[in-house]
Specification:
With 247 residues, the protein is an alpha+beta fold. It folds into two domains: 90 residues, Winged helix-like DNA-binding domain superfamily/Winged helix DNA-binding domain (Arc Repressor Mutant, subunit A, Orthogonal Bundle); 141 residues, 2-Layer Sandwich (Muramoyl-pentapeptide Carboxypeptidase, domain 2). 53% of the residues lie in helices and 13% in strands. The chain has a four-stranded antiparallel sheet. Helix 5 packs parallel to helix 8. The longest helix has 35 residues.
Length: 247
């Protein structure tokens, strides 16, 4: 009888841990994001989500991000929007990163900076070759959405978000909420540089890297210029409509 009674408790613990992990993943992919937005995505109450957020914040997995323009909550306090913190990135990152860092240090010692740059270029040449067949659209906006989907399948929690900017050419942002090679790229920024070149080649347009997780931002953000008639495609395909200033 005791064993039978203990089973549901274990199930509840596992369910809570699974939900907390999902909250962390959504904060990484969609942040800055509020408890109400997360609750709507997960089909949970805001109070239930706040309990998970409080624990994740206490464990330094996430942090509050000041985002202008959000609706106020009770007593006039602004809604708290969350982004993933360095502890959360560490929780999500690949356990083999330490080995990769050691290997690249050895490569640099043996062949210098050029050897590391050559490795980074080859890595992202392979990415271009692998992802090119998945990008079937002909305009940059649709190709950006397809690229974000392909990157998400590889663990980058990517999305495309429109940017309200007073420019002749409309701009969208490719946001990557998670970087599986973050701890490697912190020491070897050649990986980030080669990745941006790969995005440019895949999209057939100039791109501008604004921020990286490896550089201390909560997301990797890349500006993508779009054709005038194509901004709507990015707006309707983006998973969330996030206010400007997500970095």
């Amino acid at each position: 009888m005791t064993t039978h009674d203990a089973a549901p408790v274990q199930g509840v613990d596992e369910s809570a841990e699974s939900t907390r992990r999902r909250v962390l993943e959504l904060v990484a992919s969609d942040g800055p994001v509020t408890a109400a937005e997360l609750a709507a995505r997960l089909g949970l109450t805001s109070a239930g989500v706040r309990r998970h957020l409080a624990q994740l914040e206490e464990e330094a997995m996430i942090a509050v991000h000041a985002t202008p323009g959000l609706a106020p909550v009770k007593r006039g306090r602004p809604a708290r929007a969350y982004v993933v913190a360095s502890g959360g990135q560490a929780e999500l990152h690949d356990a083999y990163s330490d080995i990769a860092v050691q290997a690249l240090r050895h490569l640099r010692a043996a062949g210098g900076d050029a050897a590391v740059a050559g490795f980074a270029t080859q890595r992202y040449d392979d990415v271009v070759e692998r992802l090119s067949p998945l990008l079937t659209a002909t305009d940059p906006a649709e190709r950006a959405v397809q690229l974000a989907a392909a990157l998400s399948d590889e663990g980058y929690a990517a999305s495309v978000r429109p940017v309200a900017a007073a420019t002749l050419v409309p701009i969208a942002q490719l946001c990557q909420g998670h970087c599986p090679v973050q701890h490697v790229a912190e020491e070897f920024p050649e990986l980030c540089e080669a990745e941006a070149r790969a995005f440019s080649e895949l999209l057939g347009t100039h791109v501008q890297r604004l921020a990286t997780i490896a550089g201390g931002a909560h997301a990797c953000v890349t500006n993508l210029p779009l054709g005038t008639a194509l901004l709507g495609a990015a707006q309707t395909s983006a998973s969330e409509q996030i206010p400007e200033g997500t970095r």
